[in-house]
Amino acid sequence: MAKRNRDITIKKIQKWIKEGRGQGEGSHYKPWLTIQDVPSEGLATRIKGWTSNRYHHLMSNLERDYFYLLDFSDSVTDIREQYPLLPLDDTLIIAEKLGVKHPTDPKTGEPIVMTTDFFISINNLNIARCIKPEGGLENDRVIEKLEIERRFWKERNIDWAIVTENEIPEIIVRNISWFHREYDNEDVFNLGYTLTGNLEQLMLKYLQSEEPINQAAALCDNSMGLEPGTALAFFRYMLARKYWLVDMTELISPHFPIKSLQIVSTMQRSLA
């Protein structure tokens, strides 16, 4: 299989702009860079977002974790990753004023379009966030590039900040990652009005009697003649849809009872 050509040229930049990369909002946004464009050593992922209803291209585990927090937040209305700092001339001018080298393609030597990891809409406010491991901030060249990025957003009166692993709560991220993919579980949705109502009532009964989550789910599957794993997927679906709320600062373990469960809405109500 031929290797993908990742070399950046002015011609390729113009082509990507014409394709609409870095443009659009919500489900219509196209990231400037995709996971196919950048070598990632296996750390890049594509995740279907709840907020945008599209797949997001995340270049590192840290970006993925921060994305989970954004996607789970009720106040976030749009998430645009790998957002380009265009026009290119603006970052070239900033780099010249700073007296630092503008990022270039290592093979072609041509200047590349810099990107911000996340351009986020929170209600009517837009902010920009750069995701970096704390250890990476000790590198002088990294700091130079971050300063170009910071000044770019300052000129546009956009709040910009660096997010490290220290600002990302591990337990909350682990919880979200456990149920995130069930948000669009059509198998659960297609169970139908009556069956989901019965499953919901029985699952709540076992959970409220402090059965471990796995055990409560297995009891539901056996009692209702469902395929093994159905009730557990239903539980995760209800958390993803926020019909049921739990204390997200406490690690959700399927092997233990759920400590707190608040019923916001029912599946039956959502189907009505």
Layout of strands and helices, then pairs:
Layout: H1 10-19, E1 45-48, E2 55-58, H2 61-72, E3 76-84, H3 88-98, E4 115-122, E5 125-131, H4 140-154, E6 159-163, H5 170-179, H6 186-189, H7 193-208, H8 213-224, H9 230-240, E7 244-245, E8 262-263, H10 267-271
Parallel strand pairs: 5-6
Antiparallel strand pairs: 1-2, 3-4, 4-5, 7-8
Helix pairs in contact: 2-5, 3-4, 7-8, 8-9
Explain what you see.
With 272 residues, this protein is of the alpha+beta class. It folds into two domains: 10-168, 3-Layer(aba) Sandwich (Trna Endonuclease, Chain: A, domain 1); 171-271, Winged helix-like DNA-binding domain superfamily/Winged helix DNA-binding domain (Arc Repressor Mutant, subunit A, Orthogonal Bundle). It is built from ten helices and eight strands. Strand 4 and strand 5 (125-131) form a beta hairpin. The chain is elongated and about 70 Å long. The mean pLDDT is 93.
CATH domain topology of the largest domain: Trna Endonuclease, Chain: A, domain 1
Counting DSSP H or I runs of 4 or more residues, the number of helices is: 10
Shape: elongated
For the termini, the CA-CA separation is 50 Å
Helix share of residues? Answer: 25-40%
- Summarize the main sheet: 4 strands, mixed
Pfam families: Tn7_Tnp_TnsA_C, Tn7_TnsA-like_N
Organism: Paenibacillus shirakamiensis
InterPro entries: Restrct_endonuc-II-like, TnsA_C, TnsA_N, tRNA_endonuc-like_dom_sf, WH-like_DNA-bd_sf
Protein name: Heteromeric transposase endonuclease subunit TnsA
